[in-house]
């Protein structure tokens, strides 16, 4: 009874109602949502940082979002193998998409940090979507977090468009090689052969002259992406 009085007539009733409109359910503990919309400060103590910033909730929310997306892909893409499911999920759960979700939900209006201290890049908005999901999960449980994702995130996913989007494995590989200073990457077309599907390219990927992966595709670019995908998995394992 007390919690309902707090929600409807207490000093924080507007805050309760605002979060209810956003997440589709009454919050129990507002402190989780306040943390979700508070950026860490360099002047914070470690104790304050752990209690009053979004980053721990972001870690939790990212896992919950990944699970819901993964579950959907597993059930609706039975013709995809593990690698294809992983690629499809990566196309959905990315910074640009989450920033778009944050903007559509007007999450910037809920940020509790001084606007003058906000980063110039908008990546933090993507983090706050995941932090909000983490707050819902820890406050109301998995079912509420699942419903929020299905009602507020899924409507903006165009699965047909996502499927058609090419994932830039080649760019990711070159970025990783540069970051770790692993050397020179070279893509070599080893073979072009005609099949019933058309011409197929076989590309060999060399790192510092040593072959580490191969890829095939109906286009040279497609074969290079396949080789880069295999190389990325090898270098990350």
Describe this entry's structure for a reader.
- This protein has 237 residues and is an alpha+beta fold.
- It folds into two domains: 2-164, Ribonuclease iii, N-terminal Endonuclease Domain, Chain A (Orthogonal Bundle), CATH 1.10.1520.10; 169-236, Double Stranded RNA Binding Domain (2-Layer Sandwich).
- Helix content is 59%, strand content 12%.
- The protein contains twelve helices and three strands.
- The protein has helices at 2-9, 13-23, 30-36, 46-51, 55-76, 82-92, 95-104, 123-140, 142-153, 159-164, 169-180, 220-236; strands at residues 185-195, 198-207, 210-217.
- It has a three-stranded antiparallel sheet.
- A hairpin with a 2-residue loop joins strand 2 (198-207) and strand 3 (210-217).
- Helix 1 (2-9) crosses helix 2 (13-23) and helix 5 packs across helix 6 (82-92).
- The model has no long low-confidence stretch (mean pLDDT 84).
Short synopsis of the structure:
With 237 residues, the protein is α+β, with helices and mostly antiparallel strands. The chain has helices at residues 2-9, 13-23, 30-36, 46-51, 55-76, 82-92, 95-104, 123-140, 142-153, 159-164, 169-180, 220-236, and strands at residues 185-195, 198-207, 210-217.
CATH domain class of the largest domain:
Mainly Alpha
Average of the residue pLDDT scores: 84
Q: Between the first and last Cα atoms, what is the distance in angstroms?
A: 53 Å
Tell me the CATH superfamily of the largest domain.
Ribonuclease III domain
Structural class: alpha+beta
* Largest sheet properties: 3 strands, antiparallel
Number of helices: 12
* Portion in beta strands: 5-15%
* Strand arrangement, major sheet: 1-2-3
Any idea how many domains?
2
Radius of gyration over C-alpha positions, nearest whole angstrom: 22 Å
In the CATH hierarchy, the architecture of the largest domain is: Orthogonal Bundle
Count of β-strands: 3
Helix content, binned percent: 55-70%
CATH fold assignment of the largest domain: Ribonuclease iii, N-terminal Endonuclease Domain, Chain A
Low-confidence stretches: none
Oligomer: single chain
């Amino acid at each position: 009874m007390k919690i309902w009085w707090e929600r409807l007539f207490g000093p924080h009733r507007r805050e309760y109602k605002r979060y209810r409109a956003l997440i589709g359910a009454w919050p129990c503990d507002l402190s989780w949502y306040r943390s979700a919309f508070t950026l860490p400060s360099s002047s914070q103590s470690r104790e304050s940082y752990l209690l009053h910033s979004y980053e721990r909730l972001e870690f939790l929310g990212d896992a919950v979002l990944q699970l819901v997306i993964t579950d959907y892909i597993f059930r609706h893409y039975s013709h995809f193998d593990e690698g294809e499911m992983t690629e499809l999920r990566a196309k959905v759960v990315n910074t640009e998409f989450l920033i778009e979700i944050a903007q559509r939900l007007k999450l910037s209006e809920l940020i509790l940090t001084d606007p003058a201290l906000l980063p110039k890049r908008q990546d933090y908005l993507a983090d706050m979507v995941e932090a909000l999901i983490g707050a819902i999960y820890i406050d109301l449980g998995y079912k509420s977090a699942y419903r929020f994702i299905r009602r507020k995130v899924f409507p903006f996913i165009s699965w047909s468009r996502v499927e058609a989007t090419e994932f830039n494995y080649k760019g990711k590989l070159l970025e990783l090689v540069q970051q770790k200073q692993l050397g020179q990457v070279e893509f070599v077309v080893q073979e072009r052969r005609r099949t019933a599907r058309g011409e197929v390219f076989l590309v060999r990927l060399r790192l510092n002259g040593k072959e580490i992966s191969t890829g095939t595709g109906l286009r040279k670019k497609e074969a290079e992406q396949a080789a880069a995908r295999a190389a990325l998995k090898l270098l990350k394992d």
